[in-house]
Amino acid sequence: MKKDKFIYWATTVAIALISAGGGLGLLTSSFMIQTVDLMGYPAYFRVELAIFKIIGGIMLLLPVSRRIREWAYAGLGINVLSAFIAFAAIHGTPDQYIFPVVALVLLIVSYIYFNKVNTQTASIA
What we know:
89% helix, mainly alpha, 125 residues
């Protein structure tokens, strides 16, 4: 149980930092702003995406209802899958789209251990 909680929190904090950091980068980093422009997305989409990435990362860390957490996992999953597709289509080299794959793996591990830890907790209570 202790190991499961550690894995859950380590991956959850990592994905929350990646998500919130990426969201802040979309709002402030000229490189990320140019990259989104290069991909052909409108500026309002970049801002909208940034806000939802930040909110999603925060929701993974806060003690919110299971349904809200599930929505955060789903939204961040769609985000990293879309990032992978966009980077692969535009750049086409693994060094450009490996980061979304790593984020997706962390997200999946976090989700698996979220369910594992909460199932163990529920069965004990």
